Amino acid sequence: MARVPLPLRGLRARLVAAFVLVAVVSALSTGALAFREARTGVLQQSQDSVIQQFRKSVDSVARYTPAKPDQGDLQTAANRVLYDNPSQGWRVLATYGELRAWAPGSDFEGLSPELRRTVATTSATVFQRVDVDGRPWLVVGTPVTYGDSDGTRSQLSGMAMYLMVSQHTEDGYVQAMVSGIERATVVALALAVVLALLAASGVLRPVRALRGATRRMAEGHLDVRLAVNGSDELAELSQSFNDTAAALERSVAELRRMEARARRFAADVSHELRTPLTAMAALTDVLDENALHHDRETGDALRLISEGTTRLSGLVEDLMEISRFDAGAVTLNPDEVDLAESVRRTLASRGWQDRVETRLPGPGVLRTRVDPRRLDVVVANLVGNALRHGAPPVRLAVSVRREPAGVAWAVIEVTDGGPGIAEEALPYVFERFYKAGASRARSESSGLGLAITAENVHLHGGRISAANRPQGGAAFTVELPLHRESPVPGQDALAGVR
Fold it and tell me: Of the residues 326, 353, 383, which one is the last residue of a structural domain?
C-alpha cells in the first residue's frame, strides 16, 4: 500500500487539497457541460442557417435549370448560387451524371464518396463536418428535385448541388469558450484555495488549542481548560477534553492527598517509634552482655529479641530517610574525597575487607566532590545487597569513563556470582519495598535499601543501573559526575587490583 507523501499528512494540506480537488472537478465538469452545450448550439445554429440558405438558393436556381442540363447549365447554376451568397465564402459544386461544374475554381477536397451516394439516393439534404488541412469545414449536399404534374410528390432529377463552407469563425467562437472556461477554472481554483485556507484556519484553531492544552497537561498543569464555542463536533471535543481534565485533576488531587497522608503517617510512625526503639536497643545491649550468664533457652530468647530490635531500628531509620527525601529536606554536604580511600573505609568499618575483591585506583589518583556520608550509604547498600543475596565472588571496582562529549564519570561497579535477578524484576529493583521474590532468597531487609541508594545517587546528579552478567550474577553500576577541578586519571593509574 502506497504511503501518503509527508506534505499531505497535515490537516491543513489535506483540507486545501480536498477543496482544490472539489473545485477542479466542479469547474471541469461544469465547463465540459457548458462547452458541449455551447458548442452544439453555435455549430447547430450556423449549420441550420447555412443549410437553409443553401437550400433556398438551390430551389431558386432549379427553376431556371433544364431537366437535363449540359455543362453550361451546371456552371450557370453553380455561379448563380455563389452569386446569391457573395460574402459567405462558399464553394459550390453542381453535378449531373458525369458532368461537373465548380464555382469558384475546382478546389473541393471535402466531398466524400459516402456523401455523394447518400445525395444520389435520397431527396433529403445531408451534411457532414470535415477537416481539410487542419481547418474545419461544413459540407452540404442536396439533390435537385422536380414535382409531379399534380404536385403531390417530388422526383429526383439526377442533378445535385454541393456546398463547402469554412467553419473557422465558429471554431474561433468555440476556442474563445475554451479560453473562458480555463480562466474560470483558474479563478475557481484560486477561490477554492482561499476558502480552504479560511476553513482550515477555522478548523485548526481549536485543534491547535487542544494540542497546546494537551501539552500543558502533560507538563503537569491539570487546571488547563479550553474555551467552548458553538455546538459542533469540535465544540463537543473541547467540552470532552474539559470534562476529562477536570476528572483527572480531581483524581490526581485525591491521589496526592492520599500519598501525602501516607508519607506523613510513615514519618510520624517512624518518629514515634524511634524513641522507644532507642531505649530497647540500649536494653538489648545490656542483655546481650549478660546472655552468657543465663541458661540456653533464655540466652536464645535474648538473642532473638536483640536481632528483632536491630532489624526494627534499621527499618525505622530507612523509613525516616525516605520521608526526608519525600519532604525535600535532604541536602548534600559535599567535600573533595579520595574515592578509593572512601570505599576502603566503608568496607573496613563493616568488616568486609576479606569478603570483597576490590579493583581500585591508587591513593590520591581519583578525587571528586561528593557527600562522604551518602557515598558510604551507597557503597554499603550495594555491597551488603551482593553479600546477602548473591554468592562469592563479590567484586567492587572503581574506574573512570569518558563520554565522546568530554564528560567524565566515576564508575563504581559491584558484582556477585549468584543467580542474578529475574528479568521481569529488573525494571523494579530500585522501587520501594520491592523484593525480587524467587530470584533471591527471602531477606530480612526493609526493601528500602536500593531505593535509598538510588535517591542518594540521583542527589549527586549521578546514574544507577542493575543488570545480569552474561557469566552469571548481578551487576550494579553507579556513575557519578567528575567535577572539572577533579583530576581525570589515565588508564595506567587505575590498573592496580587490590
Answer: 326
pTM assigned to the model: 0.49
Instruction: Give per-residue pLDDT as tens, 206-244.
Output: 777 877 888 888 888 878 888 887 777 777 878 888 888
| Cβ atoms 81, 194 nearer than 8 A | no
Strands (E) in 222-346, as ranges, are 335-338
H/E run at residue 95? strand 90-96
Amino acid at 488: V
**Of 288, 307, 326, which closes a domain?**
326
The vertex-388 CA angle with 330 and 422, nearest 5°, equals 90
pLDDT tens digits for range 366-381:
999 999 999 999 999 9
Pair (166, 277) in one structural domain: no
d(CA 358, CA 355): 10
Q: Return all residues near 141 (Cβ < 8 A) that are at least 6 apart.
A: 111, 115, 116, 118, 119, 125, 126, 127, 160, 161, 162, 163
Direct distance between the N- and C-terminal alpha carbons of the chain, in angstroms, rounded to an integer: 63
Mean pLDDT of 373-395: 92
Pair (362, 380) in one structural domain: yes
